[in-house]
Amino acid sequence: MFKVENWMIVSRSQLLIDLLDSRWPQEFLVKLTKAQPGNMSKLLSTQTNSMVVFDLATIDLQQAYQLQRVIEREYCGIRTVFLNFPKQVDAKFLIHPSTTTGVFYTNANLADVSSGLNEILKGRSVIPQDLYQSLMSVNHDDDSEQLTIREREVLQTLLSGSTNLDIANQLFVSESTIKTHLYRAFRKIGVSSRGQAIAWAQTHMHEVRV
Length: 210
Fold this sequence. Notes:
Rossmann fold; Arc Repressor Mutant, subunit A; five-stranded parallel beta sheet
């Protein structure tokens, strides 16, 4: 007798949720739970899930990062998959080797996603080759867990109470670039919020001053 698995789709798009709900339960023999970013954690605590699928077209990258961190800390058996993964933004910080098993770019169609999910069900990971190579080059860098100079600069500015826009203006880059630096720094120092990052910087700033 086949066992029905529980999957969760986290998206703000009702259209996407309805589309997937009409296909995936029959195609993969799963029960699909629909979640908003705000209630994902609560729903995860009430049922056993084997996979969580994030729709990055409707979830802010910072929020997706925080939700992924929840899964890493509290639900180590759950696999994560990212739909609509951006090509133009460096979002590699979202991918965690112990949980992320699938990444699909924004140009992937449903057939591509279905084919990839079948591979994931067979125990394989499905990550685009260019992204995988980029991840490997980072992972084999001895300094991969060390803060970059720019990440250190951004962490320093947090102590002055600067907003992301303030920091962007100070460093002559875009606000989205600052967000990316912050997310990557958060992962490296093991925090998931701005307040935690400030507290960390207050304790360790002598180590990151440039």
